[in-house]
Model the fold of this input.
Amino acid sequence: MKLGVYSLKNTCYQGEVKSITCRTSAGEITVLDHHRPLLSVLAPGVIKITDTDRREHYVPVASGFLEVMQTNESRCIIDQI
Amino acid sequence: MQSLQTIKQRLRSVKNIGQITKAMELVAATKMRKSQEVALLSRPYAYVALEFLANLSRVSVGYMPPLMEKRPIEKTAVVVVASDKGLTGSFNSAVFRAFEKYVAVQPLRMDASTTTYIAVGQKAVSYLMRRGETIEQSFVKFGDYTNIEEVRPLADYLISGYLEKTWDRVLIFYTNFRSAMQQDVVVRELFPVTFEKLKETAEEIIPQTGKYAAEGHGALFQTNTGATEKEYIIEPSPEAVLRELVPHLIIMQVYHIILEANASEHAARRMAMKNASDNASDIVDDLTLEYNKSRQAGITKELTEITAGAEALS
Done:
């Protein structure tokens, strides 16, 4: 699925990914392809992004929001630490 | 023809002014580059944030945060964003002109009882005072490269005013940074939050050309125009998410507005100062020419006098 992670200072990640693992205020979740539309508040922690080449990327967050759209795209806006 | 002395004096003062404007131009150019970078880098974030808000404003989750409540518009808060310092060419007057124009065609009554004025920037304060409006609150001295903490007081003020029903609508007049050459004055309606307005704003903030142009974003808003698909799982609960998200997004918008205005201010100042130093160097050229002519005239005159004297003696 397509993912964009944006902070105020820059675009932290943009591209095709396999999965996103992050902590939300309701607990840790992993978002895979074709997830149902979701809107959630991110808790402080690290977002783990696994891209299509199985490489892992980590983005630390202080707070933020995650949106998964029906079009198999997701986006995060985050405040960096 | 003026005397040599006066021309020389004028030449000297014009040169001095040229030097000053040149220096100001360089300073403004550096500031512009930096603030432009900050403004442009925060654009994807601002754009996504706007979209979030737009989507949310159309989701029916059975809970409406007070900030997104719709209510009849009676009272308006007008925020005029201008610069703190002068010498910015038409930057400030463009904002004020847009404001005048808006007021003139305004279908709603805008008088003292229904309108609150909030000034951002020293120049906006003095403009509104001159116009004879009472300024409810003024915010001055936002830094050149504002951070989000600096604009929080302004955003909080606008939010609390809306919640306390001091106003039902917030209009912000500010300058949007298009390019170093072009800045447009835009009116943004911060409250009430409506989908159409947000879409409009999002379209405005994407530059038409250059490295930040539409491609990456262009399609996003269109995919969401279908009214059917709005079924979100919202975790932990719609209330909890919206209570955090909505104020955050509002602050974001305000922050973005200030950033844009800042970048525009520096761009405008740079242009103004560039024009000024160009003019100064033109004048220097003219004056030098005049100075040389007048010097030559003096020499010729002296020569004729000498020869005339010599002839008279012989």
Remarks:
- Chain A has no helices and eight strands.
- The CA atoms of residues 20 and 68 of chain A lie 11 Å apart.
- The longest strand of chain A covers residues 11-24.
- Chain A has one domain: 2-79.
